[in-house]
Amino acid sequence: MSFVTGSCEQFVEVLASKAPVPGGGGASALVGAIGTALGNMVGSLTTGKKKYASVQSDIEDLMKKAETLQKQLLALVDKDAEVFEPLSRAYGMPKGTEEEKMEKDRVMELCLKDACSVPMEIMRRCCEAIELQKGFAEKGSTLALSDAGVGVAMCRSALLGASLNVFINTKAMKDREYAEQINREAEDMLDKYTRLADEIYASVVERLK
After folding, report:
1. Is residue 4 packed enough to be buried (19+ CB in 10 Å), middle (13-18) or exposed (0-12)?
2. Is there a contact between 193 and 160 (Cβ–Cβ < 8 Å)?
3. How far is CA 91 from CA 49, 58, 123, in A?
4. pLDDT for residue 141 is more than 90
5. Domains of the chain
6. Measured between alpha carbons, how far is 46 from 147 in angstroms, rounded to an integer?
7. For the whole model, what pTM was predicted?
8. What gap in Å lies between CA 59 and CA 141, rounded to an integer?
């Protein structure tokens, strides 16, 4: 089942239900895709305008990259659901005997790493999207400047949301060396790109007022 081919109403309804998927990871990926699309909207409203002819090629390059990111983030909505379902089943495995406990631990560790891989990918794509928003905000049509601001705010939120899905999985891992390696990468992305997003957003606000 694909969660991105139905209606917005259907997605929100299943998100609000007790169904294990989609959850925070899928929602973050979708928000990131929408934020990226807003950047592309700025580009669409800029290209072909005589006033912005000098940045036409730059905007077109940003739009191509944004379109790729949109598709990748939408695909990650479904991918997040695919990797979480085995983990949700693993939590319910029996652990009455020592053998059962060992098997559950083995399966859990594999599922936790898989479940962690997708929100990490969502984070990486959101970082790229934030960088693109900087270009859209700086070079795009001033008539759509607010859309660039909304776009970067959404990509920032998606980045933060995906990070929580990373941390909840790394916390449960027994392989602490691997978990800390993932945590460091996630924390580095948060440190760099939330600050960048805040700077872009602040510059948009300053220009709008």
Report:
1. middle
2. no
3. 56, 49, 25
4. yes
5. 22-77+116-208 (1.20.120.680)
6. 12
7. 0.93
8. 10
